[in-house]
Amino acid sequence: MQKPLENQAVLWRLRVAIDAPLAVNFDYLAPADATPDDVGLRVVVPFGTGRRVGVILAVLPLSDPDGALDAPDAAQLKPAESILRDLPPMPADWISLCLFAASYYQAAPGEALLQAIPTGLRKPDPVKRRKLTPAKAADAAELPNDARPLLTAGQSRVLDDLLPRLNGYSANLLFGITGSGKTEVYLRLIEAALDQGKQVLLLVPEINLTPLLESRVAKRFPNVPVVSLHSEVTEAARARHFVAALTGDAKIVIGTRLAVFTPMPALGLIIVDEEHDPAYKQLEGMRYHARDLAVWRAHQLGVPVVLGSATPSPESWANVQSGRYKRLDLPERAHADAVLPDITLLDTRRMTLEEGLSPQLLDELAQGLAAKEQSLLFINRRGYAPVLTCTACGWVSNCRRCAAHRVVHSLDRTLRCHHCGDTSPIPRQCPDCGNADLRPLGRGTQRIEEALRQHFPQARILRVDRDVATTRKQWEALEAQIRSQDVDILVGTQMLAKGHDFPALTRVGVVGADAGLFAADWRAPERLFAQLMQVAGRAGRAEKPGRVIVQTEHPEHPLYQCLLRHDTPAFLDLELTERQRAGFPPYAAQAIVRAEAKQIDNVLEFLQRIRTLVPQEQHPDVFIYDPVPMRMVRLAGRERAQLLLESPSRIALQNFLNQWLPMISAGRGMTRGHAPGGVRWGVEVDPLEC
Question: Does residue 423 belong to any structural domain of this protein?
Fold first, then answer.
C-alpha cells in the first residue's frame, strides 16, 4: 500500500464512474487519504442534490504543466466525501470487462460498472455483512472417485481434449444431445480447475434451472464454498456472495446473466450452460449478451470457456465453422440403456380434434397411464385461451394499454395482458353489444389441463407454467412432486422444456407448435426448433424408451423433417444458408434505436430527424432503414417505433455509432435516452428481435 498523496487538496483528483445517464466519467477532488492503489475502490461523492457511490477509475494530477492531460480547474471540482475501504479494490480485469461492455453496447461507463455491483454495496453508508459460509447439501459427503458416474466414450473424449487445455484460452462448443451428460463433464472440469486453485463461473439461463444444478455441485464438492447470484437471492445474500467471489473465498459461482460481471481474482474456467437460450440477453438498461461477454472475458483472462447446448445457436455454429470455436460432441445418452426418443409427426389437417387434442395423442397418453409412466403435454401458451370474443359483434378482449389481446385465465376468472399486466374480470356480457355468448378462442395450458381432466378423471395431472411457479420455492416443490412420481401427466410450457431430468417421463405430446413457423420474427424458426428438440429430449432418458408426438398441419416443413431425424446440424446449416442469402446475422451486424412516446407521430418524427444527422457518404458500409412502428406498436400506454441499422462490418457499425449517438444526445433539449415531445429512446447492439 502506497502512502497518501501529498498536497492532496491542490494536486490530485479522482476520476469516478457513476451510474448516471451520461456517457462520461466525473472528476472530484481526492480525499486526504487517497493513494494510487485506490483504483477500483468505491467512493462516496456528491451528485446533484444527493450522494452516490461510484467506482474510482484513476487517481490523476489535478494540474498538468505540459498540457498532456485533460485537467480541470480545481475550482470546478467538488470534493469526494470518502473512499470506502471495507472491500478490496475491484480487479483491473473486471473494470476492463465492464468498460468494454459499455463501449460495445453503447452504454454509459458508470451504468455498466455500477449495475454489476449489488444494491447493498451501492449505498453511501456501508452495512454490516455476515460472513459467508460454504453452501453444502444436507447430507453431502464428497464422492470417492469410484462412486462417480462412469463416463461414456463421448464424455471421455471431450475431457481428454479439454483437461490439457485448462491453462490457456480456448472457446469450446460442447454439442451434446439431450441426456448426454453435459453436467457430468462440467463437474469433472470444475474439479480439475479447483485442483489448480482456480475459481469457476457457471452461468445458467434461468433461475428454475439452478436448484438441481446447485445441489449436484454441492454434493460433488461439499467442502467448497459455492454461491449463487440471481434475482431471487436476497439483496443481503447477493452482497455477501459478491464479496465472497471478490475476495476469492467463493470458489464456484453459479448465476444467471448478470453473474458474468462477478469479480473473481482467480477465475480459471467459465461454463455457459444452454448457451443458445435467449434469456442470456439483457432487455433493459445496458442490453448486453452474457454468453458473448463470457467468451470475451475468457479471452481477456486467457482461460477456457465451454458453451454447452443440445441445440446450439446459429451464431455459435457459425463460429465453429469459421474456426473460432472448437466443436466437442457428446453423441450418445449418458444412461447406458437410454436412446433418443422416437418422434412422430401427426398430420392434423384432416382430423377432428377435441380441444386441440387428436385421438392418437389421447391414446398415447392413455397407454402411458396404463404403463404407470409419466407423460408431458407441451403447449407454450399459458392461461386458458389467448382471446375472448363476442359471437354477435366480433368484440375481442384487447388490452387497454397494449396492441395485444388480454388472455383468458379461468381459475381467477380474469382477462390478463401478459405484456403490461393489465387485468380485469371476465365480463358476463359483451361490453359493446350486450350479447351474453362470449367464447374463448384458442388454447392455453389451463384449457388443455381442463380437457385432460375430463378425458382422464383418474389421472394425477399437474400444470407447470409461470402462473403456478412464480418463485424458486414453488418450482422446487413442483419438481419434487414430479420426481417422486406423484404425477401422471404434466401440462407445461417452456419451463419444462430444458435442463430437467425426469427418469419416469417416457411420452411427450406437442400441441400448437405451428405458430412459430410463420412468425414475423426471422429468429422464430431457430427458437421453435430448439424448443421442440429440448422438450422431445425430456422423454426416455432412463431405461424405458421415449415417444414424442408432434401435432402439425405442416409435417413436410424442413424444420419438422430435421426434428424427425434429430438432425440439429442439418437444421443449423439450413438456417445459416438462409441467413447468409438474406444478409442477416451472423453475416451482418445490426443495431436498433427504439423510441417511445404517448403519440406515435412524435416518435416517428424523432427517428426520422436523427436518421439524417450523419451524411450517408461518410459511412457507406452502414445502411439505415426507414423508421417503422414496432410489431407491438403500443405497450403499457406508449407508442413505439424503431430504426434499424445494418452493416456487413461490425467495426464499421461501431464506428458509426460512436459518432452518431453523441450527436443525438447533443441535440436541442435532449439527454441520453430522452428527447423533446416526451420521447424516450435507447439503442440495442446485436438485437435478438427486429
Answer: no
The answer to whether residues 355 and 315 belong to one domain is: no
For 69-72, the CB contacts below 8 A with 24+ separation are 71/13, 72/13, 72/27
pLDDT higher than threshold 90 for residue 315 = yes
Cross-strand partners of 82: 44
Q: Which residue has the cell 480456448?
A: 170
Angstrom distance (rounded) from CA 390 to CA 484 = 44
Whether 87 and 185 map to the same domain: the answer is: no
Comparing C-alpha atoms, which of 398, 670, 690 is closest to residue 522? 690
Whether the Cβ atoms of residue 18 and residue 42 lie closer than 8 Å to each other: no
CB 506 within 8 A of CB 546: yes
Query: Nine-digit cell at 54?
Result: 461510484
In whole angstroms, what is the distance from residue 325 CA to residue 310 CA?
Answer: 16
Tell me the one-letter amino acid at 613. L
Residues in Cβ contact with 336 at an 8 Å cutoff, skipping those fewer than 6 apart:
none
Beta carbons within 8 Å of 555's beta carbon, 6+ residues apart: 345, 346, 347
- The set of cell numbers assigned to 426 is 371476465
- 6-20, 100-114, 313-327 — which is least confidently predicted? 6-20
Residue 318 scores a pLDDT above 60:
yes
- Do 571 and 594 lie in a common domain? no
Q: How confident is the model at residue 406 (pLDDT cuts 50, 70, 90)?
A: very high
Which 3 state secondary structure label does DSSP give 462?
Answer: strand
The Cα 477–Cα 471 span in angstroms is 10
The Cα 416–Cα 426 span in angstroms is 9
User: Is-cis flag, bond preceding 586, omega within 30?
Assistant: yes
Q: Is residue 171 situated within a structural domain?
A: yes
- 673 vs 464 pLDDT, higher one: 464
- The grid cell for 266 is 482467480
Read off the C-alpha cell for 69.
492531460
Tens digit of each residue's pLDDT (9 = 90 or more) over 160-218:
999 999 999 999 999 999 989 999 999 999 999 999 999 999 999 988 767 778 888 99
Alpha-carbon distances, residue 232 vs 39, 280, 471, 630 (angstroms): 31, 16, 8, 31
Residue 215 is predicted with a pLDDT of 85
Closest CA to 331 of 473, 155, 510: 155
Q: Whose CA is closest to 530, among 485, 578, 562?
A: 562
Q: Exposed e or buried b for every residue in 672-683, given b needs 16+ CB within 10 A?
A: bbebeeebebbb
Domain range enclosing 620: 589-685
Please check whether residue 420 lies inside any domain of the structure.
no
What is the four-CA torsion angle of 117, 118, 119, 123, rounded to 10 degrees? -60
pLDDT band at residue 339 using 50, 70 and 90 as cut-offs: confident
Number of folded domains in the chain?
4
> Residue 586 half-sphere exposure, CB side, CA atoms within 13 Å?
15
Same domain, 188 and 296: yes
Q: Please report the beta strands in 360-512, taking only residues with DSSP state E, as ranges in sequence order.
A: 374-378, 387-390, 407-409, 414-416, 423-425, 438-441, 461-464, 489-492, 505-510
587, pLDDT greater than 70: yes
Portion of the chain with pLDDT greater than 70, in percent: 92
| Top-confidence range, 62-71, 261-270, 528-537 | 261-270
CA distance 204 to 255: 6
Report the chain's terminal Cα–Cα distance, integer Å.
51
Segment 419-430, tens digit of pLDDT: 999 999 999 999
Q: Half-sphere exposure of residue 113, counting CA atoms within 13 Å on the CB side?
A: 30
The packing angle between helices 153-162 and 182-195, to 10°, is 30
